[in-house]
Amino acid sequence: MQNRVLLVEDDDELRQLLARYLTNHGFTVREAANGRDGLALAMGQDCDVVVLDIMLPDISGLEVLRELRASTHIPVALLTARGDETDRIVGFEVGADDYIPKPCNPRELVARLQALLRRIAWDRKADVSATRVYGDLRIEPDQRRIFQQDTALDLTATEYEVLNVLLAHAGSVVRKTDLMQWALGRRLEAFDRTLDMHISNLRRKLGNDDPPRIETVRGLGYSYRVPV
């Protein structure tokens, strides 16, 4: 079964280029040239992942993402202007799973989407009875949800992956390079703050404990401290 991608991009030339490339690499592609059409298609749940440009002619991609996150956890990768870190930070805070800088390299886009969808597919094949408990957190793999004191945390697909890896190694240090590979499916590159942004969001959603339950081990990575 082919993976279904919704491509929301107002630049006709770029959108058609990416659509052709994705189609040639085994994806089924639906297209939208503005935010409202993209939002309507995404809300129809007729796609497995959304590629969303931030700069759209009617409503911004960030507003589309906010509305999506109010009702769905569908994976979303943002297309952002290269070097525009503010948009990326806000995008992750709103609930993006990944970002691809523009001008967009079609090969990189395919690799990012394949990694994101592969992680989700792997989890869905996991033992559905393998519920795990870490202090006040409970992982339900069959639902791809993590509960804190019986309340489901509102996590993106990537935040779920990051926290899942940290919990599986609770009490130990997970190197940044390993966490990036295991949770995001790609190598850690210089000046890439994607992982830091996801960690920041997770700390906020977990309640900003003092000391934080996700500890930064300077020069190495992160460690999850199970609260007493």
Describe the overall structure.
The protein has helices spanning 12-24, 35-43, 61-69, 85-94, 106-124, 157-168, 176-184, 194-206; strands at residues 3-8, 27-32, 49-53, 76-81, 98-102, 132-134, 137-140, 145-148, 151-152, 173-175, 214-217, 221-224. The protein is an alpha/beta fold and 228 residues long. It folds into two domains: 3-123, Rossmann fold, CATH 3.40.50.2300; 127-224, Orthogonal Bundle (Arc Repressor Mutant, subunit A). The radius of gyration is 17 Å and the shape is globular.
A few lines on this structure:
This protein has 8 helices and 12 strands. The chain has a 5-stranded parallel beta sheet, with helices on both faces. It has a 4-stranded antiparallel beta sheet with strand order 6-7-8-9, with helices on one face.
List the helices and strands and how they pair.
Layout: E1 3-8, H1 12-24, E2 27-32, H2 35-43, E3 49-53, H3 61-69, E4 76-81, H4 85-94, E5 98-102, H5 106-124, E6 132-134, E7 137-140, E8 145-148, E9 151-152, H6 157-168, E10 173-175, H7 176-184, H8 194-206, E11 214-217, E12 221-224
Parallel strand pairs: 1-2, 1-3, 3-4, 4-5
Antiparallel strand pairs: 6-7, 7-8, 8-9, 10-12, 11-12
How many strands appear in the DSSP assignment?
12
Strand order of the largest sheet: 2-1-3-4-5
| Count of distinct structural domains | 2
Radius of gyration, in Å, reads 17 Å
Order of helices and strands, N to C?
A: EHEHEHEHEHEEEEHEHHEE
Identify the overall geometry. Answer: globular
Number of contiguous helices? 8
Low-pLDDT residue spans: none
Return the average pLDDT rounded to an integer.
Answer: 87
- According to CATH, the fold-level topology of the largest domain is Rossmann fold
Q: Give the CATH H-level superfamily of the largest domain.
A: Response regulator
Distance between the termini: 45 Å
Helix/strand/pairing category = alpha/beta
Main sheet makeup: 5 strands, parallel
CATH architecture of the largest domain: 3-Layer(aba) Sandwich
Estimated helix fraction:
40-55%
